[in-house]
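How it folds
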Amino acid sequence: MNVAEAVGRVLASLGVDTAFGVVGSGNFHVTNALIEHGVRFVAARHEGGAATMADAYARTGGRVGVLSVHQGPGLTNAMTGITEAAKSRTPLIVLAAEVTEPRSNFFVDQAALATAVGAVPLRITSAETAAAQTAQAFHLARDGRRTVLLNLPLEVQSRPVPTPPAPVSLASPVSLTSPPPAPISQASSPSVPVSPSPSSVPASPASAPSGHVALASVPGSPGSPGSSEPEAREVARLAELLGAARRPVFVAGRGARAAKQELEELAERIGALLATSAVAKGLFRGSPWDLDVSGGFASPLTAELVRGADVIVGWGCALNMWTMRQGTLIGPEAKVVQVDLDADALGAHRPIHLGVVGDVALTARSVTALLAEGGDDLRPAPAVRDGSGGEAPAVRDGSGGEAPAVRDNGLGEPDVPDGSDPGARGVPEGGGYRSVGLAGRIARENRWRDVPYDDEGGEGRIDPRTLTIELDDLLPAERVVSVDSGNFMGYPSMFLDVPDERGFCFTQAFQSIGLGLATAIGAALAQPDRLAVAALGDGGALMGVAELETVVRLGLAMVIVVYDDEGYGAEVHHFGPDGHSLDTVTFPPVDIAAIARGFGCEAVTVRDRADLAAVAGWLDGPRRRPLLIHAKVSGARGSWWLEEAFRGH
């Protein structure tokens, strides 16, 4: 057995079940080793697509993703997808062949490339350490939630391994989308013996060559400083702050996707409303207090309620310009808290009143326990209600005016808990933001599809809101929605519902267009029991069009929706109003449906509601081939979130 074969064997024994890539001479043997040991290999048509497929597979499947690429151009072709994964802290291993001779035409400083985009570069340095270094990379990716470039020098790959590595097993693999069993820390290795053990490999020059890092120096990796258990004094301060809050709002981000139960229990105790960042959309689905996405995508009611909060807690959430609308969703008197495993994330985007370093689930559980022990001593007195059911003390909204903190139920009825009303579930006796009336408002008004609008379709084009509402009604509830970037993206993100946080894959940390179709492929393979829906703009669709062949070859029953406004809509609506020429960002019509048929898809062009009958027919049929919906959408104006987005540029 040589080094390339040992790497494949170790990863398979650690639980890797699927890998993505494009095979060249440099990664031929390691890819075949993966296959030999039971790993499914998905061949993409471009390394950039393969990288994003692996990213999406890891995000929605709760596994470590694996990408296999050729040296040099194979890696550079994949860099946009790798950058997205690294910025998103996706647990991903990039197996890249490497030439170390600078005079080779394939040579590039691969470690420097990885460092530049936030990935962690490691290298297999010898036959003797190959198995242990592979296990190191896996544990760093999984437990540290990092994208790891594992360089495989060509001259090392072919060396014989003195002793074939023993199979490595994880008796209790830690899921990445559900809480780990207590008391296992997210930052530590599992308690079961692992051979070879990452901790047995010293951080020496031999294992951390120039340009590469020693594992123990990476925050969150096994053996690195830090703990996921929050400090008791920080927990006490957070409990005191929440105990005194009258209108608390939780905003859960990527780091909270495994803490739904803990956050809902704490929110119920204090009467908090529940929102998420875009990447965690669907986390609180089913709760009557779910406000959906906070930020630029937020519905008018969500924006109103977040802006009215007196305490906002970001749980594993950056509270950046997107999630807080450049800070306009933070009321002038609101106290802002962040809970995050990464101390450097606290206060990185805005001033905060309190930062707690710790695992989200453990922190929420600790605060709930402390509030339960403290009882009424940590809760405010019940709010004084006026005759209409609203809260008498006024709070200031984001514009500086005053508005009732909680409105009545619109029927002139007392806004108090009533067990006969389904909205009363989770209304605390001591106050908080929750009330029966507010539950009714959330049920009636919170979805974007419930916000009235003037349909702007006509002349052979359909309003993107109308299109997406109709699709939401047609498509089965068990779906996983993947969204590309562009002016259109707010419509599928907010008008298509999802069943839970695994039902939405938003590869937008780098804000590149062209990743949407590959995202949907990875998500489809991770969740074959759900209908995969890819939402693309015409620009992104044509950038990633090669992967249509991959969809067809894999036999994926996928729905691909192309919102076609014949241009780069974000730039059109940003620069057009100022009178700039738009010749560089607008294009003549393209028959995208015909292109899709050429790849082997079924396809339909949609210009109005009546054309969607073909979609219903496909859904009712055998779904033997993927369906592409070429939607000619109206582009009279930019989407509602666009103005907010460009304020940050």
User: Anything to note?
Assistant: Confidence is low (pLDDT under 50) at residues 169-207, 219-226, 381-423. The radius of gyration is 26 Å. Residues 47-61 form the longest helix (15 residues).
